[in-house]
Amino acid sequence: MVERSAQKDDFGAVILEIQRRERHAGKLKVVKAPAQGEGYVFGLPGSMTAVICRSGSGALREFQAALKEGGTKFGKLHDRIMEQYRGGRSVSDAKAAKAMVEAPVLADVRYGGSTLNSAIFLPPHIDYAVSVFPYNGGRLAPEGFQLVQYPKDGSSERLEGIIVAASPELTPAEAAALRLVPVSQMGSSVGTAADCETTYWAVGAIGMGFAAVGFLGFLTVHIAGTEIMQLGRVPRLSETEIKKLGPAASARKLLGLRREALLESRVV
Asked: Which of 10, 43, 107, 263 is most buried by its number of CB atoms within 10 A?
């Protein structure tokens, strides 16, 4: 992921705005993606997906219930989200930055102390902000995931969310190597957002112009009968590579391979 310099783009004002605001941090719960089967499947193997909603709106509760039930219930929610995204329009970086500065609340998703995606907010016609992170299948850092919020002075709007974990299939050698990764290196289990060109959610993930119709299609796939969704390419490390690299370096290599596979699997 390429993070643009604040001195060379329109987002310096966003950084300054965040620095002026109060900061509130809270944990993000991790739930397992339902097993693949007939119906709608959310989350590709080897990914963590953050789903962020407005607190008190009922959207998160609705998403969790639909995710658990699956089938036509999740299909209807998926279609409604797609319609919301289709209602957006493309905007320039300058207009996107202006919308961030004016947003009643901004938020970062963090994992293991590192920021995975920044300046998340919800435009008026959008109920869900979605970000995808590559996941190598290893143990998670003790710090876990956090949602760090920056409310505008006088604003009562807050955000809430969950992380949907879709574990990849691992070879016995890969699984054994990941079990040996030291606690201090578990930050290598999850990477920065796979769906953006910058660390800013509104520009990279859906650009406020919500080319994310394809993006959400990438996340949510309808499975017919016994057909099973697969990544475009299943990344593997050989036992020879693992022995040469060692556990921690193998974990980082697997994470990089997961990112490449997720990007190759996009339908955008």
From this structure: 107
CA distance 264 to 210: 20
User: For 225, how many CA atoms within 13 A lie in the half-sphere containing its CB?
Assistant: 2
29's tokens: 């719960």
Q: Cα separation of 13 and 26, whole Å?
A: 25
Question: Measured between alpha carbons, how far is 231 from 234 in angstroms, rounded to an integer?
Answer: 6
* Assigned token pair, 212: 């994310």
Q: Write down the pTM of the prediction.
A: 0.82
- Say whether 21 sits in a helix, a strand or coil: coil
pLDDT tens digits, one per residue of 213-235: 444 444 554 443 333 334 445 67
> Residue 154 belongs to what domain range?
12-265
Nearest CA to 136 among 238, 13, 255, 14? Answer: 255
117-144 per-position pLDDT tens digit: 888 888 888 898 888 889 999 999 988 9
Asked whether residue 6 is domain-assigned, the answer is no
